[in-house]
Each structure stands twice: as structure tokens, then as C-alpha cells.
Amino acid sequence: RTYSDSSSFSKLLVVFTVSGGGLLAYADANSTSPIAPPEIKKKRVVVLGTGWAGTSFLKQLDNPSYDVQVISPRNYFAFTPLLPSVTVGTVEPRSIVEPIRNIVKKKNVDVHYWEAECFKIDSQSKKVHCRSNQNIDGKGKEEFVVDYDYLVIAMGARPNTFNTPGVVEHCNFLKEVEDAQKIRRSVIDAFEKASLPSLSDEERQKMLHFVVVGGGPTGVEFAAELHDFVKEDLVKLYPAAGKYVKITLLEAADHILTMFDKRITEFAEDKFKRDGIDVKLGSMVIKVSDKEISTKARVNGQVATMPYGMVVWSTGIGTDPVVKDFMKQVGQQETRRVLATDEWLRVEGTDSIYALGDCATINQRRVMEDIDSIFKKADKDNSGKLTVKELQEVVDDICERYPQVDLYLKTKKLRNIADLLKDDSKSSVEISIEELKAALKEVDAQVKNLPATAQVAAQQGAYLAKCFNRMEEAEKNPEGPLRFRGEGRHRFRPFRYKHFGQFAPLGGEQTAAQLPGDWVSIGHSTQWLWYSVYASKLVSWRTRSLVVTDWVKRFIFGRDSSSI
Ligand code: FAD
């Protein structure tokens, strides 16, 4: 198919083909024959997804030598950290979204957005197959194909159901803005239904039993928001219903918020207990029917069943089927949850496809495979052992290539290696490849997965855009580490994740924060820190002002409980 677009200059008509390799042809609109076309062969970059990773990439890309095509079923960027607030009306849905066309309206880069989903990536012929969101004149959803020179996969992930029966059919997810809107309506509908005159106490109890599955940051924040909504707004409007409300949080592990410091976990569990939120630890959901949810206790295998009014399922992320199919094509193990990339975010087994955000992870397993070659390079006298000086070279090499490693050099088993390196007097101490591998196994276990967070996705998007901006320059003057296999240097430094800490809002205007250096802060003052950080991170001044206005409105008038 051929699509045309007109620029703001009336004399120029810009024609491009979506499947035609990114050739721009300029023609004089007032003349019948085209002027001698200054043909510019631009490399086409196709970006799949307009979430944290894709949007961050697009915002930072400023090299005009690319023809950028963005494909995503969502024509907006959504600020996901505020989704739990949308479920109860603390913040309105439109306040946290920004149209993608506003974001990509760049003066110097050609960016075209297509509202469609990619249903197949064909890495052999470098094409992506897409299906439009729109049903045109009853003819169904149009399908089209887009060629690429570079592909950036930033499609996020699906909620993980662990194939638990009944979850897809009966549970609410909290992933998209539509999910949050649906939850908000369901909560209010439950209160309206429970207020009808002819119901028994038992029926009211069932309707007002809200179950949250998953004690991670999202599940915990939703339970806290729901508790505040009920306590601060709904029980005042539905006084008779108040006594029937129950919130249950089910967590399969021994604690909630396990990724946080123990002090935060303990504080959250105590606070929920005081608030009357029933936290059931070691409870694995095994089945959900239209009326009941069944759990199995981890300690004794006892099965329990409870009636519910609404379930919100928030147990982490699973693989998108399109990504799964693509994994097969490029020879990645199907048991993987996400795509494996190298430290430059390039999908393993490909040369021009990158993957960022929740759909990908950097494959740190190759640290171990590389050790042999690094070791052999450093072991100049072929003795099978390294001196401390040689060891220093090995560790420097590894740290340069795997930036996360140096974080762990200071910890646990690697501490003794770090000590050896610091202490010159031990220059005669030697280390064998086996010892080195044993020590680095620790690193391998710790650094293989970055968390699936907006923070990681946004940093990866910004990193990759910077690489694309400097592609030609870096080709001439590579700035990366020496190649372990082959000659010369890598073009770019590898991606390095900088952790700025994480928040866990716990309701009642209290938040817990774990900041770099394991600095923990909990309470009302941290809630104000949360307000300021999230307001500053919003994507535009428009959304920033809307969200702050929503917060002020909530303080003054309470939350809106109408079920629209
Ligand atoms: P997403 O942001 O999910 O974007 C994926 C994009 O791909 C979307 O635009 C989608 O429409 C598009 N897409 C999907 N399928 C296709 C397809 N077939 N073809 C083309 N495009 C497609 N992280 C934090 O760091 N801090 C927080 O406080 C925080 N809170 C969260 C709260 C909630 C409720 C949720 C759900 C997540 C939260 N996260 C938080 C996690 C964070 O949102 C994700 O890690 C982040 O969104 C990942 O970014 P991404 O770009 O990989 O994916």
C-alpha cells in the first residue's frame, strides 16, 4: 500500500511507501514532472509500543537521518504508576495519559504513528505484520506490512495468570487505563447492588468482599487505595453497607512486598492489620469460579474456598504471544518469559532488532561463557593461574562489559576478590579459573534480571535513542569496551541501569520508600516525597497540572463515586 502525507510547505509533496524501504521522493506540487529528486535513503526504524520504553526512545531520538514508524494499538502514553489511583478516582484517567502524536511532534525527525497492533514479526524478511485498531466500513480491521532496517520491540508484557483456571474469565487485571476504569465502576456497582433492599446479609457480604491476588507493589497499592476509598468516601455515602465490606489480600509467598527491605515489609503488614485488610500469606490461588475463589495453603496444602464480589489479579507479568512466536524464530528457548538481549539491548540471534522494557531482559548468563576467553587472554604465561595483577585486568574487563557486576564485587563471595585486588602486598596470590568461576557464579545469579519497572524501561529507551543518535559517529570512533570475541572495540558502552529507589504507597497518606544505599523512609513525610517525585516524572506540563488538580480536588471534595 502507498500512503501520502503533505508537509506544511505547500510546494512540497512528500510521498512514502510503508512497505517500500524508507525512500523519500520530493516533487513540486505545481508542476507535472518531479524536480530532480534529492533522494535521501533514510534508514527506517520501526518502534513497536508506546509505553515507557517506546516513548522514552522516541522522546530522546533526535537524529534526522531516520524514518521512524511507530506502531501501537494505544495512541497515547499512560503513566502506569498512577493507575492504582485511577481505580478509585483519586486521579482521573485522562490526567495520566498524553497523546503519542503530541509526544512525537518533532521538528527534525520524521515520525509517523500507526494505530495498530503488530501480530507477527518476520525477522527473515525484515517485516512486521500489523492489524489496524479500526474497523473500516464494516470491512473488518485492515492488515498491512511495514519494512524495517532497525526494529525496536517495546511491547511490554501480559499479566501472568500462571494458567490458573478461571482467572481470565472472572478476574480484573490492572495493566491498562481501561482496566482501572472498569475496576472503579465495579467497586461502585458493588456498593449500589449491596444497598438494594431485598438482599440477605450473606449476599451483601459476598458482594462487598474485594479480593486482591498478589502482594507485590501494585497489589499492595491497590488494596491500600481501595481501603482509603471505602473508609474516606464510600462508607459515608453508603452507611448501611459499611459493616459488610471486607478486603482480602492473597499472597503465595511468606510476606508481601518481598522485593523491599524487611522494615518496609513489616511496616506494611502491621499497617494492613490495623486497617482491617486481611492479609493471607502463603496462600496460592488454584481456581477462580464466577462466585468463589479457591486457595491452597503452602504449609499444609489445605484448600479453602471463599465467596467474592470482585477479584483483582496482580501477580506479575507473562509473555505476549507475538513475542513468544518471535522467540521461536530467533532460536531462543520457549521456556523464557521474556526476550534475551545482549548488554547493548540487541536481541540475541539478530543483528538489527532491539528489545526494551518489560518484554526483554539482558542475558547475563554469557558472563560465565565469556570467562574462559577472558581468562585465557589474561593468563599470558599459560600457567592456568592468574596473578593479582592479571586478575585485576580480568575483573576490569568483566566490569566494563557487564556494568552490573561491579556493584556485586563489593558483596558476599566477591568481596575477597575485591580485597585481593586492593591489597598489593598479596601480589603473589594466584587464582585459578575454577575459583574465579565459583566467585562469579554469585554475580551470575544476582545480575541476570533487571526488575520489570518503568524506571528500567525508560532508561533503556533513553540509552538506545542515544546510541541511534550517535550511530555514524560511533561507527568511526567506537567508544565501547574491547571485544572478547573478534577484534576492536564495541561501538557503544553497554547499557548501565541506575537505580533511583522505589516507593510503596500504603494508604492513609503514608508511603514507604527504599532509596539508593538501602536508605529506608516510611510515613507521612515520604508521602509528600512521593507526590513531588511523581508530579515531576509526569510526561508533560498538561498531565502534571491535571494530576495536581485531581489531588487538590480529592483533598477538598473527596473522590467522585458516580458509576460512569
Ligand atoms: P508498557 O508500558 O506496558 O508499554 C507497552 C506498549 O506496547 C503499549 O503501548 C502497548 O499498547 C504496546 N503494545 C502491546 N502489544 C502490542 C503489539 N502487539 N504491537 C504493538 N504494540 C503493542 N514501574 C515503576 O517503575 N514504578 C511504579 O510505581 C510502577 N507502578 C506500576 C503500577 C501498575 C498498575 C502497573 C501495571 C505497572 C507499574 N509499573 C511501575 C511497571 C511499569 O509500568 C512497567 O514496567 C512499564 O510500563 C514497562 O514499560 P514497557 O514500555 O516495557 O511496557
UniProtKB/TrEMBL annotation:
Its EC number is 1.6.5.9. Keywords: Calcium, FAD, Flavoprotein, Membrane, Metal-binding, Mitochondrion, Mitochondrion inner membrane, NAD, NADP, Oxidoreductase, Peroxisome, Transit peptide. It is found in: Mitochondrion inner membrane; Peroxisome. InterPro entries: EF-hand-dom_pair, EF_Hand_1_Ca_BS, EF_hand_dom, FAD/NAD-bd_sf, FAD/NAD-binding_dom, NDH-2, NDH2-like_C. One of its GO terms (molecular function) is NADH dehydrogenase (quinone) (non-electrogenic) activity. One of its GO terms (cellular component) is mitochondrial inner membrane. SUPFAM superfamilies: EF-hand, FAD/NAD(P)-binding domain. It is a peripheral membrane protein. Its cofactor is FAD. Belongs to the NADH dehydrogenase family. This is NADH:ubiquinone reductase (non-electrogenic).
